Amino acid sequence: MNISQIMTKKVCPAGREVTYREAVKKEIRNKWRRTLTAWLLLLPSLVFLTIFTIYPILKSFINSLYIDNLSVMEPVFAGLSNYVTVFQDKVFWECFFNNLLVAAVTVPLSIALAVIMALFANSIKKGKALVRLGFTYPTFIPLVAAANIWMFIYTPIYGLLGYINPEWRLLADSDTAIWALIVMLIWKQAGYIMLFYVAGLHGISRELFEAAKIDGAGAVKVFTSITWPMLKPTTIYVLIIALTNAYKMVDHLYIMTKGGPGNATNMLLFYIYQTGFDYWDTGKASAMTVILVVLLLAVTSVSFFRQDKKAYYND
User: Model's pTM, two decimal places?
Assistant: First the structure.
């Protein structure tokens, strides 16, 4: 037996010789078997993702290339004309800037409030479960119920705020209506975001806080130097959640203001609903849907890219 034969063979415990090539083939078969098992386990989720996410997006893009409204009997191919119409629509830009205002206010305030609640709930010695339940209770309330609760709060004379000042017409005033919705949205989602920060706080090593305490660092220094930097991955995740929530307001608007007064509280998703189901302009509604999806994908992609880039340089 020459050297090459000795190097390409090994003796099994049973005494049977197995060539290196056979071992490689067996490992490849095992790898394919594991891969196939993984894909089969993922298949149900992929089916639902395809049916309820990928297919609607593709269908919306195709519909956006056609004029499909009450002025035509059958859809007519029009290229990018629907997109041109959308960008020339003043109501669309009003909805866009309303959504931008809602996102710019609710996202940082919800995150800040959630961090404060998480720190408080994590610091108390007794009644942690009760405090967390109280903070997260608005999250468990259905959207329709939450909207009706705040409708009662804002109702003049008979509502909760009506007892303070019967002259307040917060939802009927174009200057205050959107701010009333912003308060409701922060109240609804801050507790939900808090849950992620509570989990993030539990993931921080206690040794870091003990070392900071030994060094004489104060509460503010500990938060800025240890707590907040360690919570950055959580912040990126909840930032995306809060941002998408700001662009998903439909139930609240339909019950509380229906986009009024005028278009003071109208948002992109609700305007898409109005265009598609009230005005029967499927082509224009599909074009706005594609624009909204691209906008959200761009924001989330940039957030993940920045997070990955920071992680790469930190490593």
Answer: 0.80
